Amino acid sequence: MPAPPRPPPDAHEVAAELRRQVESLARSRIIVPVTVGDPLDPVDGQLWIRSDTNELRWPRGGLLDAWTTPALVNSWAHGNPVLRYRRSGAQVWLQGVVGGGSETGPTTIFTLPAGLRPTADLTMSVATYNADATAHAAGAIKVQASGAVVFVAGFASAVHVTFSFFVA
């Protein structure tokens, strides 16, 4: 009777095996420092194995751009932390806080440069708060194919942005 099928390994087993393989390459005269964790702020030239997704990254000089703080328009102002964006391969990350814009109707916060724009409009959920932080509501930001990042709904006093999307 054949042995029962082996269950698939969990993410940590896969990451550990990948790390062993890369370290083996390093011992065979290919020098590659390896870190397992979250590669949002890696050191230049370090190879990262992201343990929750088993994603392999080689930042700067590779796939990861530096964070950029955009110039905001239409009375929007940076909060703490400031709103910033960057590209990692085909993925664009936005994170930070903005506030001070208008809650009446859609208003543009800033515009992404060419190469960081989605191929179609995307609507993303964000957390929003009123001026004295006594009330919160789910809000929405639309990232348009034109590059405009537009506040669509929610409180405009504090808009917490943390999302990513893919570009062509």
CATH architecture of the largest domain: Sandwich
What's the number of helices?
A: 1
Q: What order do the SSEs take from the amino end to the carboxyl end, as H and E? A: HEEEEEEEEEEE
Strand content: 35-45%
Mean pLDDT: 78
Helicity, in percent? 10-25%
CATH topology of the largest domain: Immunoglobulin-like
Instruction: Please compute the radius of gyration using only Cα atoms.
Output: 20 Å
Poorly predicted parts:
29-39, 59-63
CATH superfamily of the largest domain: Phage tail base-plate Siphoviridae RBP, head domain
What is the CA–CA distance across the termini? 49 Å
Number of E-state strands: 11
**Count of distinct structural domains:** 2
Largest sheet: 8 strands, antiparallel
CATH C-level category of the largest domain: Mainly Beta
Please write out the topology.
Elements: H1 11-27, E1 34-36, E2 47-50, E3 55-57, E4 77-78, E5 84-88, E6 91-99, E7 107-111, E8 122-129, E9 136-143, E10 148-153, E11 158-166
Parallel strand pairs: 1-2
Antiparallel strand pairs: 2-3, 4-6, 5-6, 6-11, 7-10, 8-9, 8-11, 9-10
Structure description:
With 168 residues, this protein is mainly β. It folds into 2 domains: 11-57, no CATH class; 77-166, Immunoglobulin-like. Helices cover 10% and strands 37% of the residues. The chain has one helix at 11-27; strands spanning 34-36, 47-50, 55-57, 77-78, 84-88, 91-99, 107-111, 122-129, 136-143, 148-153, 158-166. The strands form 2 sheets. Strands 4, 5, 6, 7, 8, 9, 10 and 11 form an 8-stranded antiparallel sheet that branches. Strands 1-2-3 form a 3-stranded mixed sheet, with helices on one face.
